[in-house]
Amino acid sequence: MTGDDFSEVERLIRQHQGEAFETRSGLPMTYKVDGSRIKVSRAKPWLLMEGARQIWAMGPDATLTDVDQRITGRAYLFAILRDSRIQPSASR
């Protein structure tokens, strides 16, 4: 995956902010983007777009347990990235 791949994903993340998403366990959440930061309604700290980029670079076969635990909010970022609205080919 290239940086160009992620630029489309980042555009989709920004486009769908404020919409209802679900965690892996089905809990509702929303998020907003401010620059390179993402604020998820269910998480206290701001998450970083760079964390989302790192998860995206792992590819579609990666699982949550594959994601580095040092990425703040990795489960929330993973849930956003795996949503069909954020998949570039599904959004056209």
Automatic annotation (TrEMBL):
It comes from the Bacteria. This is Uncharacterized protein. It comes from Actinoplanes subglobosus.
